[in-house]
Amino acid sequence: MKTRLLLATGVTALFTATAAFASTPGLYVSGDAGVSLLPDLHFNSAATGTSLTNYDAGYNFGGAVGYDMGNGMRLQLDSQHASQQLSGVDGTSNAYGHLSSTTLMLNGQMDLIPNSQLTPYVGAGVGGVNFGGQVDGYSGRAWKPGYLLEAGLRDDISNQLSLFGGYRFTQAESVKMSDPTIPDAATQHFSDHVIMAGVTYHLGQQ
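and the corresponding structure tokens:
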């Protein structure tokens, strides 16, 4: 009898906590920052063929404005900026340059445990990526179509504030780069792995 009473009390407490943090439809804003980890990226040149550009770990920061539908689904307009220094080409260190990117994505997110204070989430988005920089004497920059995939963990610490952390992968079409000293055209591939943390403020909630 005592065991049943303790079990019933625990279940009641769980449902009470879940109801206390139930999502309410409305607008929100968020900001985040983290580390950007570029993989070895393909650099294709008519003169030298295909090389792998290597980059140091860089920084990433950004934010979003979105709408919480109240059922664990969110739709947001997200923008991120990242920057990295070139560390080498094909594993050598006798190269100089940098790469930076700015994204603008329409992104959807879904909580895997809706209306729970602590929940994992997944998301995906499409939009544009403005990226480019310099690889030795080559340089270039342009907006290209891109997409993102993400997964993380969110904690609703109150009705107004949520903390989150997670992983985000972004990829875009290659951008053209050129060297004014030689008649050669090249393309720089782009993809990015980001580990980030941030905070969300839910507007109009008490």
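(Above: one complete record from the training split.) The chain has a mean pLDDT of 89.
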